[in-house]
Every structure is written in structure tokens, then in C-alpha cells.
């Protein structure tokens, strides 16, 4: 898979904004978007969370969750060995059950990309085709506190190493200071850096770090800003800041994606990341996607879970559905 | 050599003006000893209708005024009444055939009741209202608001005190009123209307009808644009029928009272003509 | 398969242990009724649930007499502390049997289990907890020291929130020291009868609460009974009006919670996604069987098309069907009669030129159902914009300025509730000030809490339920001279709260002449 071209993205942004994407124009646009009532948003999310998913729906949901997972390791202690282990788990989540789907991608730091690609071998490819992508976090992840040059070099290096997807972080400081033009330009520049020599591009996920934006109004504006600047995905969190993904925040981002689709016809992906550990929670996200943007969004190029421990909980549930009795942690593998 | 007196023409008080009854009718008001006192206007159903229109027109301004302002306006009535004590005492002495002391006591008590109610204007909402600790992320508050247009059948056995005791509390919250005065002792009510006209009470807030309560009350009780009816002085009328009529538009009803404590000062007389409004608003830092 | 169809997730009915026949609950025991019994059915399947006793005049008298005895002998003499303990017990028992009550409610009423489980029953428990704490604090109810209970309360409740309305009625009445005869609606008696079993488990003294079942005539007989001191009714404005006439000239106090035609006002700066949710919750919660439903959507003209488009998208995700399925959003219409009324008014809307749009959804074969429906191009003069439909039908109107919104919102004989959606705080407060309605929801809708007074202006009734105001509706001030605290210097001051004027001892009561007159008057109309 590959992202949309930067030229198209910029033209679309100019058309939507009606002017150059500077602080003033972006500020007017983003502050003109309807506000969010936090209580109402949280109640709607809670309501979606009460859906009861049973039997055949649940089986489908569990498999879908697995196929949407970006299996992630983002530690200072990551090693080639750890990454190989992660990739093995990604390719064969439940060795005891060959019908278990593969995850969508593995998500690692940029310097780990070659090891991931190597370990994937022939399984490396587009998750829409049943293969596994390699996603790399870049742009001075997780804080984003460095110069643009370093962020771009970080990105270009990962793309050159073969990363299919780049998970960048926005400059939250600039965003909170109202320097929307700067945030826009950085995203656009990173998008440019995602381009490969053959003209294709790595898909760009833009991490808002919603735990630092704090208010829903900020999340909504940052979502619009990221999409306008050319992001293919908007992602909640790095996983390094609490709170990470929450259902209300994800619902809100899905609403932006829905509105963008109504406005332009373009489909943008959403990735909640961090803190989703239980199947039950993940199913709530599926319900929220299905009832907000439609179930056609439940495909790897439009929805992902950024998670690590979630996979094993889903596998336990899956075993319960297959065997009819409860499973235990020793019956799933650690990666 | 005594001076030949100049008698007053007693008219209705509607919308801040003093019209005669549109029907052209009057009735003879006599003193306790049977002497002729005046020809009071005998209001018709159309006068009642006009009074309701005037009252409805005044609700927004009076109910929307600040409570502090309403309190000042009501206090001003007491001030003006104090200045015309002698006139009211004489009027009551003559009309009711009571001693000067009794008449004076009635006037003084009337003035004091204006003051008591004036003081409530910017306090009753604090006593009758609440912040409600609901189990959720909401700001939630209940406040009393004026009911709207209140029709009053004033107590029939006094000239001034009953009238004031019924009218003053209805005004506190911001209602406007249409009052049917005592049939037998209507003159002080009209004199009071003259006080109101020269005070700061906006026109239409108080409308005074004289004549036959039995004739006028059913039209007020059944009027769709009247929100509440105080039957305090309707004890001798067929008040049950009036209450039945009032039920057609679910009017708030106060039932008749009699005796010296009729319409005694009470916070309940204020809140009887208020509606509790509860407002919910979401609250969040996010 | 489509994930959105989900698989059936029915709540188990095994938790219920319903009887085949229910008697009247009088004096602490179930007794046979002397009227002709009737069946209660499940509106989602039209299946019979149980046979219900029908209280005739003699049964009503027995119930009132039992309530009077209990009032005289035990309840009015009991300490507030002990009355409170009984109410706390009841609250806990409701929590313990919450799921059973929710299932029974959905079965008998047709409302989705997620509402009976997450809204109705938790609020029932909350209501008893709230008023339990009031029972020994009546001096602070706002009527001065030593307020008096009223005596026997006749309470007649509707079918839309059967158990919740029971709690709204019984909890404050008992806390204040009254005893109760309650009549649930004919189509939804089951949870009230399970509640009677709860009262037995709570060991509430016999006669303190009596529950009699029957139709409208039973309710009318109860309200008219001379042994009744307080009437509390929730239901239609037509019946409320008849009750107000019936009790004219008596000493009975009344609380009436009647109809509504609430405006839900959406300004162009509203938090739009939450406003859409609020509109949906406002009119489609409980199939629109809600007196305070936001049945008139007043939307600022410049966002009308966008709002309607978003609304239709959202409504398309609503799931209509088995009330006991945990994923059901829209349950069954409560009765055939109600369904016919909704259809009739809806057809009138079309005839009047409004544009009808209904959610395309499958309607189950049996039972009573009505797909969520929106009318656009509705004029203020349309009957669907003026009359209470009491069903899942929304009328959309437009406005241009705040003043016009207020004028249109207030242009109704009703005045129960209203909604405001805007991001502008000053506008919310100013609009809330000018709306003539008893409950205003700003950037939310259909929220209820036992501490929050609820009730209407104008023809939506009088009196409040909930909060201190709801307690005061079951009390009267101590007689003059008997209140311990000081009085204002002017003589004979009596403090009362919230519309309940001091009833004077000297009031002329002419009940003998009254009934005849009231009857004549009533028949003219």
C-alpha cells in the first residue's frame, strides 16, 4: 500500500481552506469547526460500549481485531532478537491454530526496520493482501522535540530501509502555541520525505498525542490539521503518555474522518494506540468504527490498533470460542 | 363657612390608565351608615379582557427587571402610601364605619406588608431555589420564576389591607395581576391605584377592576391567557365553579380564605405564583 | 455477514419468576379484586404475561381504608429515622433485584433492556436512596419547623416508565410520612406488583403502600375517594384537567405531571455531533413515550439541511426489535391504541404537507412497532408541531434568531421541558431564562436525577417531583403557633414552599355541593 501523493493533498488542502495554510488561515478554519461537548461525546462512547457482541459476530470481531493490529515494540531495550521474536508472533499468532489471521503490521523504531524486513521474508507486504507491513516510528518519536532536518532525516532513513508506513508525531508544543502553519508544514515535509525513488510513498500516520492535547476541541482541530496536511492516518498516541487511546477520543477522530469523507470523498485511516489490552475493549472500538464511519472502515488500510498485549488476550478469547472452555496464559506465546 | 368639597370620580385602572368601564356602568358605593360615597365603575367582562391584555404585556418587563429593582419599586409604594396615610384612614373610616384607630391600624399594617414583601424580592429565589447535587457531570440549578398573569379576587371584608395582602406577594416574583377589588369597599383600591400610577410600578403590572366579583371572576377563571387565580376573597362566590373553570387550562389556584388572617404574610403566597425551573448544563475540563 | 447486524444477544428471562395471576396489594397482602380481571401482554409479541386483578369501587375503598389505618396507627407516628430505614431497605432490595425488574419492565412495557437496565431501574434505586435520607430531616424541607404529612396519597402513574414513576411517587410520599394507594397503568402493572413483593421483603408495615390495578375508572375512583388527602398524577393533560376539576373545592392537594411538546433548539454554533445525539436521545429514547421528549426540533435555518442529513445517517444505525436484546435501541410501542394514535397523527402530518422520512428497517411481524420518523417542512401551525404524539416522531422546524427560537419554543400551551444546543454560554443562560418550561437541558437532554426537581409550566401541570421541592409537595406547614421557630413580626405568617400555599384552617369546604357542580361542569366540555 502507499499513501496519497503530496501534490494532491496540498491542492485539496488549499481548496478546503480557501487560502495558503498559514497560522491565520488555519486558525480561522480550525476554530470555525463546531466544538465538542465533552460530556455528550463521552456518553455516546459509553453507549457504544454497551453493545453486546456474541457468537458469530464475536468470532468475526476477534479475527478482525487480529488482522488490524500493529504489533508493536518501542523500547530502548529493543534488539534484533526481540524484533525477530515479534515478527514470528505477527506471522503466526497462534501456532496451535493455523486459521488464525496474521496481524496487519509490526511497528518498530526506524533502526529496527531492516531486522523486521529480514525476519518477515516473503510475508512482508500489503496487509490488504494478507501480508504484513513494517511500520516505523519517526520524527524524534515520542517527544518530537528536535529540528525539522533531523525529523526528515529520521523519516527518510526508515523509508530507505524499507518501512512501508511512517508513524510521525506532531509538534504538540507548536500546536498548543497556535502555530498551526508550522505543524502543517512539518507534516507536509515528512509526507514528502515518505516518498521513495520510484515515486511511491510510505503511508503516513500522524500521531496527535491526544494525552498532551488534553481537550477534545484540540483533538478535533489537530485531526483536521493532520488530514489537511496530507496524513493518511490519524493516530491517537505514542503509548508513552497517559492517557493514551480512549474510546471517546477515537470516536471523535472517527467523526472527523467521516466528515472529511463527506466533504472530499477521501477515506482517512484511524489508529488508536496504547492502553487497549482486552478483547472486550477492542470490540468496543470495532463497534464504534462500524457505527460511526461504517464497517467498510474495518480494513487494514483504514483502521489499526497500536498494541502489543492485546493480541494474546484476543487469542485466549479465540481459543475459548473454538474449544468451548476457558484458556490460560500458558497456552499463548510471549513474543 | 365650610368649603364645598370636590368629590372624586372613581374609575378602573387598566394598563396604567384610569378608564371608565367600557360598558358605561357604575354602581353606588355607600358608607357603613348608608350614605352615598361614590359611583364606582362596574367593570364588564370586556374590561376584564382588556386588563388581561395589559397584564400580559407587562409581564416581560416586570418579570425581567432585576429583583433588586422590583424590591425598590415595591418599597416606593410603601413610601408613597405613608405620605397619604391620612387620606386612606379617612376613606376607610367612612367606608367601613370603623374608628380612626382601627382604620389607622389597617393602613399601617398595609404599609408594613408592602415593606415586608419588598424585602423578599431579592431573597425568595435564594430560599426557594436550589443547587442540585446530581449524580453526573452537570451543573444543575433550580430557580423560581414568575407564573405570569395572576387574577386575584381580593378579600372582600376590608378596603385596603386585604387588597394589599393579596396583590403584594404576587408582584414580588414578577407576575402582573388583574385584581377584582372588594365589591363593598372598592374606593381604597382605586386610591391605591392612584398611588401605583404615580409610583415606579410599570403600567399594566397592576390592573384594578371594581364591580361585581360574581360577574367578573368567571371570565378571569376561564381566560386562557391567565396563568393563575387567587380566590382568596371568593369565599362568598361559587368558587368551586371558578376552580373547575380554572382547571381547563391548569391554572394555579389558591383557594378562599376568610377572617382576620386571610392572606396573612407568607413566603408561600410568593411561591404559590412561581414556577420552579431546573436548568442542566454539562460541565467538563476536556 | 454484516458485523453491524450483530448476533442476537437476548437478556435471559430465566431470572423472572412471574405468577400466572396477580391480585391487588392491600394491607400488606395480595387479595382478589372484585372487578373483572384483565390480561397484561408483552407489546413486542402480544403474548400474554399474566392475569391482573381489577379493583372495583369497594376494592378502592378497602385500599384507602388500609392506607388510613396504617397512617393513623403506625406510619405517621413512626420516627423519621425509622421511616428512612425502611426506604433505605427498599432501595437496597431494588438494587438486589435490579436485573429481574429490568427484564420484567422490558417485557411488559416494550422498552429496550438497555434502557430499563441502565436508566429506569438504577434511577428507581436512586430515588429511594435520596428520599430515604430526607425522612428524618423534614424541618429542612423549606416549610419551617415541624411540617405535617398530608395523610393518604392517591397516586396514578402512566405506562411509559412504570417502575420509575412509581418510585417518583412513593419515595417522597413515604419519606414525608404519608401512606399511599398507587395505581399503575393498565398495560404495565407487572413491575409494580413485583415491587409489592419487595415491600413484603422489606417488612414494610401493612397498608403503608397499597397497589391496586385496574383501568382509568379505577384511577378516577381512587382520586375521587373522600379518604384521600393528596393526589399525584402523571399522564395526559386531558386526564390531569379532569382530575383538577374533580378535586376542585376539596382540601386535596395535587401534583400533576402532564403532557409536553418540548422544543429542542439547535443553534448554528452547536457541538454538532453531540447535538445530533441529543436530538436522537430527545425523541427516540423510550420510543418517544416521554412526556418531556424533544418532539419539536427547532434548528437554525442556515444549518437545517446539514442537521437533517446527519440525523438521517445517525438514525440509520438505530436497531429496532426485541426489547430484551441488549443491542436494541428502539423497542415496541406500548399498546395498539398508542400505535394507532401515532399512525393517525403521522398521517395527518403528511396530509398537512410535511415531508415524512422513516428509518428503513425491518418491522417484526407480531407486536406494536413504529419506525423512527422525521418530519421536515413542518409549519408551526401543523398539528404534528402542536399535539403531543408520544411516539418516535420528530417534527423539524426552523428559526433565524434567538428571539424567534424562544418565541416558537414558547408558542404552545405546554411547558414541561426544552433543550438548547450552542457553544455560547451567555446565550444558553439568556435563552434558558426566557423559555417557559420547567426543565431546561443545555447541551444535553433527557437527564433525570432524584435531587433535581422536575415538572411543568402551564398545561404541563403543576408541582415538582424530585429534590426538596418534590418532598415539600407531600407536606404542609405546621399549624400557626405550633412551629417551634420564630415567625416574621407580622401576624400569622406561614411559610410554604413551591406553589403550595398555606391551606388555612378556616377554608370553607363545600364538598357536598362540589361534586354535583363539578360533574355538571365537566360534562359540558
TrEMBL record, chain A:
Gene3D superfamilies, alphabetized: Aldolase class I
Q: Name one GO molecular function term.
A: deoxyribose-phosphate aldolase activity
Domain of life, per the record?
A: Bacteria
Reaction catalysed by this enzyme: 2-deoxy-D-ribose 5-phosphate = D-glyceraldehyde 3-phosphate + acetaldehyde
What GO biological process terms are annotated to this protein in UniProt? Answer: carbohydrate catabolic process; deoxyribonucleotide catabolic process
Q: In which pathway does it act?
A: Carbohydrate degradation; 2-deoxy-D-ribose 1-phosphate degradation; D-glyceraldehyde 3-phosphate and acetaldehyde from 2-deoxy-alpha-D-ribose 1-phosphate: step 2/2
EC no. given is 4.1.2.4
Ribosomal protein: is it a keyword of this entry? no
Write one Pfam family the protein is assigned to: DeoC
Q: Which InterPro entries match?
A: Aldolase_TIM, DeoC, DeoC/FbaB/LacD_aldolase
Q: Does the keyword Lyase apply?
A: yes
Annotated Gene Ontology cellular components are: cytoplasm
What keywords were assigned to this record? Lyase, Schiff base
**NCBIfam families with a match to the protein in the record:** deoC
- Family that this chain belongs to: Belongs to the DeoC/FbaB aldolase family. DeoC type 2 subfamily.
- Under what name is this protein listed? Deoxyribose-phosphate aldolase
From TrEMBL, chain B:
* Gene3D superfamilies from the UniProt entry: Aldehyde Dehydrogenase, Chain A, domain 1
Q: Which UniProt keywords apply?
A: Oxidoreductase
What molecular functions are annotated in GO for this chain?
oxidoreductase activity
This one is known as: Aldehyde dehydrogenase family protein
Ranges where the Aldehyde dehydrogenase domain occurs: 22-237
Instruction: Please give one Pfam family short name.
Output: Aldedh
Xref: InterPro entries:
Ald_DH/histidinol_DH, Ald_DH_N, Aldehyde_DH_dom
Which parts pass through the membrane? Answer: none
Q: Does the keyword DNA repair apply?
A: no
Automatic annotation (TrEMBL), chain C:
One Pfam family here: Aldedh
UniProt KW Repeat keyword = no
Per UniProt, the keywords (alphabetical) are: Oxidoreductase
User: Segment Disordered: which positions?
Assistant: 483-525
Q: Where is the composition biased (Low complexity)?
A: 510-525
Q: What molecular functions are annotated in GO for this chain?
A: oxidoreductase activity, acting on the aldehyde or oxo group of donors, NAD or NADP as acceptor
Does the keyword section mention Kinase? no
- Family, per the entry? Belongs to the aldehyde dehydrogenase family.
- Protein name, per record: Acyl-CoA reductase-like NAD-dependent aldehyde dehydrogenase
Amino acid at each position: 500500500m502507499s499513501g496519497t501523493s503530496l501534490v494532491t493533498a496540498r491542492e485539496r488542502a488549499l481548496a478546503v481552506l480557501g487560502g495558503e495554510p498559514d497560522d491565520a488561515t488555519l486558525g480561522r478554519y480550525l476554530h470555525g469547526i463546531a466544538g465538542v461537548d465533552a460530556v455528550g461525546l463521552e456518553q455516546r462512547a459509553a453507549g457504544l460500549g454497551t453493545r453486546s457482541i456474541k457468537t458469530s459476530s464475536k468470532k468475526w470481531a476477534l479475527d478482525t481485531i487480529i488482522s488490524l493490529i500493529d504489533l508493536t515494540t518501542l523500547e530502548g531495550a529493543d534488539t534484533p532478537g526481540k524484533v525477530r521474536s515479534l515478527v514470528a508472533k505477527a506471522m503466526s499468532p497462534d501456532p496451535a491454530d493455523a486459521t488464525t489471521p496474521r496481524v496487519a503490521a509490526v511497528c518498530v523504531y526506524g533502526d529496527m526496520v531492516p531486522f523486521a524486513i529480514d525476519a518477515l521474508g516473503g510475508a512482508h507486504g500489503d496487509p490488504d493482501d494478507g501480508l504484513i507491513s513494517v511500520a516505523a516510528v519517526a520524527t524524534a518519536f515520542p517527544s518530537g522535540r528536535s529540528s525539522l532536518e533531523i525529523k526528515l532525516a529520521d523519516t527518510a532513513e526508515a523509508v530507505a530501509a524499507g518501512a512501508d508506513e511512517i508513524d510521525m508525531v506532531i509538534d504538540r508544543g507548536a500546536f498548543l502555541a497556535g502555530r498551526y502553519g508550522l505543524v502543517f508544514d512539518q507534516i507536509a515535509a515528512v509526507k514528502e520525505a515518505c516518498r521513495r525513488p520510484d515515486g511511491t510513498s510510505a503511508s503516513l500516520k500522524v500521531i496527535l498525542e491526544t494525552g498532551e492535547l488534553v481537550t477534545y476541541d484540540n483533538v478535533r482541530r489537530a485531526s483536521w490539521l493532520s488530514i489537511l496536511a496530507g496524513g493518511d492516518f490519524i493516530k491517537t498516541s505514542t503509548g508513552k503518555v497517559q492517557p493514551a487511546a480512549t474510546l471517546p477520543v477515537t470516536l471523535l477522530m472517527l467523526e472527523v474522518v467521516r466528515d472529511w469523507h463527506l466533504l472530499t470523498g477521501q477515506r482517512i485511516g484511524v489508529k488508536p494506540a496504547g492502553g487497549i489490552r482486552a478483547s472486550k475493549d477492542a470490540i468496543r472500538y470495532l463497534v464504534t468504527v462500524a457505527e460511526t464511519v461504517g464497517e467498510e472502515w474495518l480494513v487494514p488500510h483504514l483502521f489499526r490498533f497500536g498494541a502489543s498485549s492485546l493480541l494474546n488476550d484476543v487469542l485466549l478469547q479465540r481459543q475459548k470460542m473454538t474449544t468451548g472452555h476457558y484458556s490460560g496464559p500458558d497456552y499463548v506465546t510471549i513474543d | 363657612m365650610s368649603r364645598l368639597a370636590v368629590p372624586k370620580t372613581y374609575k378602573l385602572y387598566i394598563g396604567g390608565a384610569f378608564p371608565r368601564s367600557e360598558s358605561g356602568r357604575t354602581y353606588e358605593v355607600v358608607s357603613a351608615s348608608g350614605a352615598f360615597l361614590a359611583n364606582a365603575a362596574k367593570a364588564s367582562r370586556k374590561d376584564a379582557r382588556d386588563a388581561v391584555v395589559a397584564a400580559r404585556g407587562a409581564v416581560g418587563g416586570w418579570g425581567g427587571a432585576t429583583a433588586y429593582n422590583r424590591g425598590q419599586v415595591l418599597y416606593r409604594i410603601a413610601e408613597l402610601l405613608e405620605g397619604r396615610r391620612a387620606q386612606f384612614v379617612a376613606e376607610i373610616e367612612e367606608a367601613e364605619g370603623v374608628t380612626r384607630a382601627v382604620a389607622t391600624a389597617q393602613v399601617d399594617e398595609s404599609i408594613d406588608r408592602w415593606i415586608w414583601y419588598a424585602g423578599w424580592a431579592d431573597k425568595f429565589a435564594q430560599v426557594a431555589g436550589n443547587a442540585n447535587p446530581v449524580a453526573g457531570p452537570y451543573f444543575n440549578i433550580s430557580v423560581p420564576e414568575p407564573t405570569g398573569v395572576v387574577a386575584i379576587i381580593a378579600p372582600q371584608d376590608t378596603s385596603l389591607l386585604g387588597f394589599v395582602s393579596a396583590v403584594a406577594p404576587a408582584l414580588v416574583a414578577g407576575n402582573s395581576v388583574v385584581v377584582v377589588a372588594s365589591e363593598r369597599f372598592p374606593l381604597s383600591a382605586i386610591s391605591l391605584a392612584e398611588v401605583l400610577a404615580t409610583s415606579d410600578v410599570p403600567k399594566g403590572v397592576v390592573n384594578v377592576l371594581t364591580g361585581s366579583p360574581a360577574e367578573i371572576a368567571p371570565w378571569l377563571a376561564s381566560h386562557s391567557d391567565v396563568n393563575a387565580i387567587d380566590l382568596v376573597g371568593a369565599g362568598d362566590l361559587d368558587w368551586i365553579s371558578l376552580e373547575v373553570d380554572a382547571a381547563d387550562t391548569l391554572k394555579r389556584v389558591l383557594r378562599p380564605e376568610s377572617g382576620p388572617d386571610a392572606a396573612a404574610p407568607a413566603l408561600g403566597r410568593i411561591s404559590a405564583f412561581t414556577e420552579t425551573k431546573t436548568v442542566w448544563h454539562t460541565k467538563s475540563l476536556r | 455477514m454484516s458485523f453491524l447486524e450483530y448476533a442476537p444477544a437476548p437478556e435471559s428471562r430465566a431470572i423472572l419468576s412471574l405468577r400466572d395471576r396477580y391480585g391487588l396489594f392491600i394491607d400488606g397482602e395480595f387479595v382478589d379484586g372484585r372487578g373483572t380481571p384483565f390480561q397484561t401482554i408483552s407489546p413486542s409479541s402480544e403474548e400474554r404475561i399474566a392475569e391482573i386483578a381489577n379493583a372495583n369501587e369497594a376494592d378502592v375503598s378497602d385500599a384507602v381504608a388500609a392506607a388510613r389505618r396504617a397512617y393513623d396507627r403506625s406510619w405517621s407516628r413512626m420516627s423519621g429515622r425509622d421511616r428512612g430505614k425502611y426506604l433505605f431497605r427498599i432501595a437496597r432490595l431494588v438494587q438486589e433485584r435490579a436485573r429481574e425488574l429490568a427484564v420484567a419492565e422490558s417485557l411488559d412495557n416494550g422498552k429496550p433492556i438497555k434502557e430499563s437496565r441502565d436508566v429506569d431501574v438504577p434511577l428507581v434505586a436512586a430515588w429511594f436512596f435520596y428520599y430515604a435520607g430526607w425522612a428524618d430531616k423534614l424541618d429542612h424541607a423549606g416549610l419551617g419547623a415541624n411540617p405535617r404529612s398530608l395523610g393518604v396519597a392517591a397516586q396514578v402513574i402512566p405506562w411509559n416508565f412504570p417502575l420509575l414513576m412509581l418510585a417518583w411517587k412513593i419515595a417522597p410520599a413515604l419519606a414525608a410520612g404519608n401512606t399511599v394507594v398507587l395505581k399503575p397503568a393498565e398495560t404495565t402493572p407487572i413491575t409494580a406488583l413485583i415491587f409489592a413483593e419487595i415491600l413484603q421483603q422489606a417488612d414494610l408495615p401493612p397498608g403503608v403502600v397499597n397497589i391496586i390495578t385496574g383501568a382509568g375508572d379505577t384511577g378516577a375512583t381512587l382520586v375521587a375517594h373522600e379518604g384521600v388527602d393528596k393526589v399525584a398524577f402523571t399522564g395526559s393533560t386531558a386526564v390531569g384537567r379532569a382530575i383538577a376539576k374533580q378535586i376542585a373545592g376539596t382540601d386535596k392537594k395535587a401534583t400533576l405531571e402532564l403532557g409536553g411538546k418540548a422544543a429542542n433548539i439547535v443553534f448554528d454554533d452547536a457541538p454538532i455531533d453531540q447535538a445530533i445525539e441529543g436530538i436522537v436521545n430527545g425523541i427516540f429514547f423510550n420510543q418517544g413515550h416521554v412526556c418531556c421528549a424533544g418532539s419539536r426540533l427547532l434548528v437554525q435555518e442556515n444549518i437545517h439541511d446539514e442537521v437533517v442529513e446527519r440525523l438521517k445517517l445517525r438514525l440509520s444505525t438505530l436497531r429496532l426489535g426485541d426489547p430484551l436484546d441488549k443491542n436494541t435501541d428502539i423497542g415496541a410501542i406500548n399498546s395498539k391504541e398508542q400505535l394507532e394514535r401515532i399512525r393517525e397523527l403521522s398521517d395527518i402530518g403528511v396530509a398537512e404537507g410535511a415531508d415524512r422520512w422513516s428509518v428503513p428497517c425491518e418491522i417484526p411481524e407480531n407486536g406494536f412497532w413504529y419506525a423512527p420518523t422525521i418530519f421536515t417542512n413542518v409549519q408551526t401551525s401543523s398539528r404534528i408541531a402542536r399535539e403531543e404524539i408520544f411516539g418516535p416522531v420528530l417534527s423539524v422546524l426552523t428559526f433565524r434568531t434567538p428571539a424567534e427560537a424562544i418565541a416558537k419554543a414558547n408558542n404552545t400551551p405546554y411547558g414541561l421541558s426544552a433543550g438548547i444546543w450552542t457553544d455560547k454560554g451567555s446565550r444558553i443562560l439568556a435563552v434558558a431564562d426566557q423559555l417557559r418550561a420547567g426543565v431546561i437541558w443545555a447541551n444535553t437532554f433527557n437527564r433525570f436525577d432524584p435531587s433535581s426537581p422536575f415538572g411543568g409550566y402551564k398545561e404541563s401541570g403543576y408541582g415538582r417531583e424530585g429534590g426538596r421541592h418534590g418532598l415539600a409537595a407531600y407536606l404542609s406547614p405546621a399549624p400557626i403557633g405550633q412551629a417551634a421557630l420564630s415567625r416574621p413580626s407580622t401576624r400569622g405568617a406561614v411559610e410554604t414552599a413551591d406553589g403550595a400555599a398555606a391551606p388555612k384552617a378556616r377554608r370553607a369546604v363545600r364538598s357536598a355541593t362540589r361534586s354535583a357542580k363539578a360533574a355538571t361542569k365537566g360534562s359540558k366540555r
